Known about the structure:
Blueprint: E1 3-5, H1 10-18, E2 25-26, H2 41-57, E3 65-75, E4 78-80, H3 86-96, E5 100-111, E6 114-126, H4 131-139, E7 160-164, H5 167-171, H6 175-184
Parallel strand pairs: 1-2, 1-3
Antiparallel strand pairs: 3-4, 3-5, 5-6, 6-7
Helix pairs in contact: 3-4
Amino acid sequence: MNIILASNSPRRRELLGQMGIERFHIISPDVDETVAAGLSPAQIVEELSLRKAGAAAKGAGPKDLIIAADTVVALDGAVLGKPRSGDEAFAMLSALSGREHHVYTGVTVLLEGRAVTEHEQTAVTFRALEPGEIRGYIATGEPMDKAGAYGIQGLGALLVSGIRGDYCNVVGLPVFRLGRILARCGVDLLQGKEQTKA
């Protein structure tokens, strides 16, 4: 089977490689990310990952296996998206300073019309940040395309004092959970049963 990653994220590509999936295709679906009011962060990421997988399936073959994911940062249950300005990034990072927040990633595996959708949650704690540190971090440009205005795989790691759960989930792909889903779909990476072709 062909494996398709429904994402343009270089971080998700790297994590698939880390899992031993070296041959896969990329389809970057353009989906409406508007969701109904009142959904929890977990429900949001599950719905959006399923939506992305379904959109990618339109450009895939009937036997292709599709992996899609969506990640959000939530503070006190409120979702923090990607900042639209430096001021918005400053407000997000100030709110996260010295506090614990949660990162949710929904992941969908779609194979032969059957979708399995789950989510992972990881708790992340920021140390107390000085305003000058926040401005300096924003000046690097790293926060501007990241949910919650930081990237733990980059300079954002300097902001994090603790983590409980799957680190890879915070990067953008819950490797442990995805591996278990793939095994149930017949792709057991630890047994060398990945049957893909370029």
